[in-house]
């Protein structure tokens, strides 16, 4: 018997969760049309070369051979056969990728992917990542509470001070400061203290634009802590959230869902830290999230002491077996012996000599990965589509690949001049019902901007009844790779969806290409937090998609 459906607030009430979140994990597999799906948490996106090789063999021997990188820098294996769960878990445990069964789905940590590699930022936060993961999995309940009670959507972000992951809408954020410390920042509560409530569709944008108060009357908790205390302080802040969630009776999954009277406060977090022997200084005037910083550009990354890194974008976040083997081999030959997955579905290979880095760029480009900052793949995403999703009306990934190829060849003009393109001002009604995604529930860092599991069982479970799987939330709202923070600065991100649920679409302004059948798409620009397109939509064939999207992005 299934649990009751999740209820959606009327606007002035927090959501009342009738079930646990349905995010897949390494132990909780999700059945899809193309076999079961597993989501492997990789805190900070950090993988040793040996771990990467293990995951590659898992995908080839147990799944369909491909690996999806999510918007939280996690990995997904698709096409798993029934009954392989025990073997999958055993392999991951041996590789150190499943350190605690009870904490499998709570190890959601994004981190600045170039931290310690390019001389930017105030600290190398990779050490924070490993320490936080250890605390999450092994902390004593007496000090931290039982952190396995966190939902699979709860997110930690560790920013080295450059501001790249601090704007991804995490529940708990650590930001390195020039004095060797860290700002510990909690997400703002969406519901206002006066009971008026905030429109949940625009909460994340509101928070990003208005600073510490999050646009409402419930300020976010911000404290300064010593750098050495930062990971433990983040875990204690999460424990404070769990206490508030229990008191509220709402079974909230994320900090912003708490009712105002049960918000996580500076005083509450400070008291918990003090009880654990951690000095914390409230920062009432600390600014909120600023303009999102761009993700690492594809190509060479120059670092100190003659060491380089290579930043690679993975088209649609999916690497085939050959591509993953190449990434693993290059990582194993580097001085760092690791690779880093990013919240923008890319990979960074650190520790290379200048010559090796240039050779790696060439080999990766030949393998179909993106190593140039002007690639037409940047800023383009798509849901899983057919055949993996039963609800999809098209093979959107194949159509997206053709769209990018047409763009590269300069053949996109076919749609711009298509006299038969059908413009519809009122076409938003059909798309609106499935487009209500909370700006923070699927971005990088939130796994919303993930292409979620892409199983077609629904977008954000906040809005879709039933116990379907949850897309990974990822960076919250914000532009995709290769895009700027707003209109007029760079082409808008593009997302191609197989159905009106639009699983995994980006936040902010974006170009929506929605499948309407086997060979048709409706293209429109959607604004942050709005269900209604900013202008009339245009109906085109799959062959005309490149031109219509280019016109909508303003690149023609």
Automatic annotation (TrEMBL):
Q: What spans are recorded as compositionally biased (Low complexity)?
A: 416-437
Q: What class of enzyme is it?
A: oxidoreductase
Q: Name one Pfam family in it.
A: NIR_SIR_ferr
Catalytic activity, EC:
1.14.13.83
Give start and end of each Nitrite/Sulfite reductase ferredoxin-like domain.
Answer: 37-92, 305-365
Write down what this protein is called.
Precorrin-3B synthase
Q: Which Gene3D superfamilies match?
A: Sulfite Reductase Hemoprotein, domain 1, Sulfite Reductase Hemoprotein,Domain 2
- Tell whether Iron is among the UniProt keywords: yes
Query: Which residue ranges does the record annotate as region Disordered?
Result: 1-22, 280-305, 405-493
Do you know which InterPro entries this protein is assigned to? NIR_SIR_4Fe-4S, NiRdtase/SiRdtase_haem-b_fer, Nit/Sulf_reduc_fer-like_dom_sf, NO2/SO3_Rdtase_4Fe4S_sf
GO function terms (MF aspect): precorrin-3B synthase activity
What keywords is this UniProt entry annotated with? 4Fe-4S, Heme, Iron, Iron-sulfur, Metal-binding, Oxidoreductase
SUPFAM superfamilies xref list = Nitrite and sulphite reductase 4Fe-4S domain-like, Nitrite/Sulfite reductase N-terminal domain-like
| Entry annotated with the keyword Iron-sulfur | yes
PANTHER family the UniProt entry points to: BLR3264 PROTEIN (PTHR32439:SF9), FERREDOXIN--NITRITE REDUCTASE, CHLOROPLASTIC (PTHR32439)
Q: Where is the composition biased (Polar residues)?
A: 1-10
- Show the ranges annotated as biased composition (Pro residues): 284-298, 462-490
């Amino acid at each position: 018997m299934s649990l009751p459906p999740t209820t959606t607030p009327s606007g002035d009430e927090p959501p009342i969760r009738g079930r646990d979140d349905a995010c897949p994990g390494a132990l909780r597999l999700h059945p899809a049309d193309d076999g079961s799906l597993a989501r492997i948490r990789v805190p900070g996106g950090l993988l040793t070369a040996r771990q990467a090789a293990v995951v590659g063999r898992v995908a080839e021997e147990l799944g369909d051979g491909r690996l999806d990188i999510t918007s939280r820098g996690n990995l997904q294996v698709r096409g798993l056969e029934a009954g392989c769960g025990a073997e999958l878990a055993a392999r991951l445990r041996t590789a150190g990728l499943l350190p605690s069964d009870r904490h499998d789905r709570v190890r959601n940590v994004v981190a600045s992917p170039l931290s310690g590699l390019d001389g930017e930022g105030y600290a190398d936060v990779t050490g924070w990542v490993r320490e936080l993961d250890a605390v999450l999995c092994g902390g004593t309940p007496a000090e931290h509470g039982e952190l396995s009670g966190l939902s699979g959507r709860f997110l930690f972000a560790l920013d080295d001070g450059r501001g790249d992951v601090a704007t991804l809408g995490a529940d708990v954020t650590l930001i390195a400061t020039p004095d060797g410390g860290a700002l510990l920042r909690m997400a703002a509560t969406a519901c206002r203290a006066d009971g008026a409530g905030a429109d949940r569709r625009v909460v994340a944008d509101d928070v990003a634009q208005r600073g510490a108060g999050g646009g409402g009357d419930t300020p976010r908790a911000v404290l300064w802590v010593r750098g050495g205390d930062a990971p433990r302080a983040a875990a204690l802040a999460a424990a404070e959230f769990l206490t508030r969630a229990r008191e509220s009776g709402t079974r909230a999954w994320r900090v912003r869902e708490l009712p105002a009277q049960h918000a996580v406060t500076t005083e509450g977090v400070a008291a918990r830290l003090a009880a654990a022997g951690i000095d914390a200084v409230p920062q009432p005037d600390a600014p909120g999230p600023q303009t999102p910083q761009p993700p690492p550009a594809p190509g060479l990354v120059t670092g100190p002491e003659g060491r380089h890194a290579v930043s690679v974008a993975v088209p649609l976040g999916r690497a085939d077996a050959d591509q993953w083997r190449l990434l693993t081999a290059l990582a194993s030959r580097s001085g760092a012996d690791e690779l880093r997955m990013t919240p923008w579905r890319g990979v960074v290979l650190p520790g290379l000599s200048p010559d090796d880095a240039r050779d790696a760029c060439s080999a990766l480009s030949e393998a179909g990965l993106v190593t140039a900052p002007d690639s037409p793949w940047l800023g383009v995403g798509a849901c899983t589509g057919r055949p993996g999703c039963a609800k999809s009306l098209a093979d959107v990934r194949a159509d997206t690949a053709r769209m990018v190829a047409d763009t590269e060849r300069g053949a996109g003009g076919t749609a711009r001049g298509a006299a038969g393109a059908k413009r519809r001002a009122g076409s938003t009604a059909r798309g609106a019902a499935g487009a209500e995604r909370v700006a923070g529930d699927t971005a990088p860092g939130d796994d919303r901007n993930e292409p979620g599991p892409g199983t077609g069982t629904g977008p954000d479970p906040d809005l879709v009844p039933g116990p379907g799987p949850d897309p990974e939330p990822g960076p919250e709202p914000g532009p995709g790779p290769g895009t700027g923070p707003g209109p007029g600065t760079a082409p808008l991100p593009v997302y191609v969806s197989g159905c009106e649920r639009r699983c995994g679409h980006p936040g902010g302004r974006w170009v929506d290409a929605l499948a309407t059948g086997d060979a048709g798409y409706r293209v429109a620009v959607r604004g942050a937090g709005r269900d209604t397109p900013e202008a009339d939509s245009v109906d085109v064939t799959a062959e005309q998609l490149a031109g219509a999207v280019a016109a909508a992005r303003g690149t023609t």
